[in-house]
């Protein structure tokens, strides 16, 4: 963590896990363990499935928890005949602060290309929700050594038409696809290489402020025994965590990354 102005963000992407009863239990368990100092040191966010958002909202509001929450996807459409979609205004009404855009599982299983991701990023901003933009290369690209060019091109595609003011509120998550859910974590240097390149690109596309202020997370098999090395890198501002965010004790350890060795 080089830049004190960028508050670390630890976000748990629950993916397709936890019905609303389980969601309440998990957030309660986290809230029981986390204290004021934890929230001063890091921003803590959970991303439950749509069906659990209302329950999480009720719990967070009712108990005035400092845990933030958001959604895993957003429709590029505001309303209309789009069966199964959930819109930005709906998520905003549920108090969502964040929404994932461009997660590799959406790109792969739902054919989301850069144009769709770009539309979703804009839909989030239009509803005052911070997009958590996911970028990252697959194994073939990594083996060819093209990870920086690939990820920077994804960034360019996702940010078409996004303003400087919006870019400064954006959160980016660099998630090499080969490291997601595989236990194959990128080395801290791997993470730093791409996160640094993305930061440079933000400067080229927008301004030195955008480059300095935008938080860039790493995601891919982050656990309590590897987070410290990754967070020590100067351009990594947090973690987007999948599997390890499903257990309260482990997630709390991630929030306390400074205590891990
Ligand atoms: O959104 C989270 C990422 O896909 C990482 O998942 P993982 O921590 O289970 O590898």
Automatic annotation (TrEMBL):
PROSITE patterns: TIM_1, TIM_2. Its main location: cytoplasm. It is found in: Cytoplasm. The active site is at 103 (electrophile), 175 (proton acceptor). InterPro entries: Aldolase_TIM (IPR013785), TIM_sf (IPR035990), TrioseP_Isoase_bac/euk (IPR022896), Triosephosphate_isomerase (IPR000652), Triosephosphate_isomerase_AS (IPR020861). GO terms for molecular function: triose-phosphate isomerase activity. It catalyses: D-glyceraldehyde 3-phosphate = dihydroxyacetone phosphate. Its EC number is 5.3.1.1. Belongs to the triosephosphate isomerase family. GO terms for cellular component: cytosol. It is an enzyme of class 5 (isomerase). Homodimer. It comes from the Bacteria. The keyword Cytoplasm applies. Keywords: Cytoplasm, Gluconeogenesis, Glycolysis, Isomerase. The keyword Isomerase applies. This is Triosephosphate isomerase. Substrate binds at residues 13-15, 181, 221, 242-243. One of its GO terms (biological process) is glycerol catabolic process. Pathway: Carbohydrate biosynthesis; gluconeogenesis; Carbohydrate degradation; glycolysis; D-glyceraldehyde 3-phosphate from glycerone phosphate: step 1/1.
